[in-house]
């Protein structure tokens, strides 16, 4: 029977496999099972309470909080009421929360705890559409009927009948909205990506058929639910019916791996970078022959990978040496990593940002399967993926069945298929810029397609948007403009694409430095004053001031002050005095690289 909504997938599991385990949730210090029937029941309770609160079919509802069982059942309950989930990152500041809530026209907000509730209390006068804020964990801190606990909210829904809820579910179809996910644009104002039940049903189908996720898998989930990557993992769970275990937090992934012993895990590159860094730290800290063998094994892993990319092979001597080192070094490394991962890991999926080939080769040679996929919020996340048995490192795999990818004349990757978004919410201009008349999604990424395997290789980014190693979308212009509001600072160029954090290069305004010098008692030529410790202390203070207005992942963690300002003559500025990012990145690339070097 054809499915009309992703809610139908949950209903099927509840009807046909009601007593089977759907989730593993930690309570009272240990993980326990939650059945499919219980998930359905909890979602139904939320749906009924939303109807009782006055939420109508098609209304938008915000959810802000950490990844947890309650997040999932709240999301599914919103869908049961025929409404639309609009997630918000828990790291968002009150202004950012207010923008998403106001722009989406949300009628109700689910917030994890009192700290998250406070963000909406602060902006209450600007949230006229919001009828209630529901706190799902902890005690209320305010004596205000606008804020209710989850218990009180659910109790109010008991008067709603099953028939009323079923009526809402019956209104859903493939064209109905399932979520609006706000993602940063280069201007800094987030755009709401409109995704439908049809988009998600397609994702559920193709991820199951690709055999990357299987029904007998146990997945450990820790990615933020406001990210489309986590959304497609939720949908993949509904599509296959495997077991979904929730990590307590990002800080407890390692112990939770040991408790859950998953067979499947998905994460952004930063997760795999941490595992890699820990292994490398241990290997390079060894003494004598052990260290020598480990370092040589790493060198040959990279060299072998580079040979593969060229369609070449290692020479006889190095090939024999690499074979021996695989047994002597990588086999032991693999055993150790597998135990850290719980001992049963079958496959790990990296997405959200590019994974270093060096790390992918390292894990591959250690017998750990890490596959990389590609997509964007606008394409419902899963667009291409490598397969465990066909993992072409350095690529993001071939397009999933039903999706077509082509390369435009300027090298831009274009996508067409059932996963492509409907539009940007209330933003026809941005929609027209991204979706052309023929339905092609313009990704802003530059790439190529391997003619032999159809795997996509991403080579560059067309737009300035930064995607960190943690998968966060960051608009650099907003940060730079904020820093440049301080009169002492002339230019600020932030960096962080595929990196762990944001760094910056700063130049000092030649007209302002003299005034500061007089006040501070420093003297000398411009170049010398730029390097004076007092200037650095002041810039540090100014950046800290700017950071206070940014979300944690947007803040500048490291910076350097240049001893010369940018100019048209030296090539860093255009005639309109705009910064040429590529020129700056090329000219000062060594300085940016130094920010991220890890000492072993």
UniProtKB/TrEMBL annotation:
Top-level taxonomic group: Bacteria
Entry GO terms, CC: membrane
One MF annotation (Gene Ontology) recorded for this entry: long-chain fatty acid-CoA ligase activity
Keyword Cytoplasm listed: no
A UniProt-annotated Pfam family: AMP-binding
CDD domains with a match to the protein in the record: VL_LC_FACS_like
Keyword Lipid metabolism: yes
Occurrences of domain AMP-dependent synthetase/ligase (ranges): 12-425
InterPro entries: AMP-binding_CS, AMP-dep_synth/lig_dom, ANL_N_sf
Keywords: Fatty acid metabolism, Ligase, Lipid metabolism
PANTHER family named in the record: AMP-DEPENDENT SYNTHETASE_LIGASE DOMAIN-CONTAINING PROTEIN, LONG-CHAIN-FATTY-ACID--COA LIGASE
Name recorded for this polypeptide: Long-chain-fatty-acid--CoA ligase
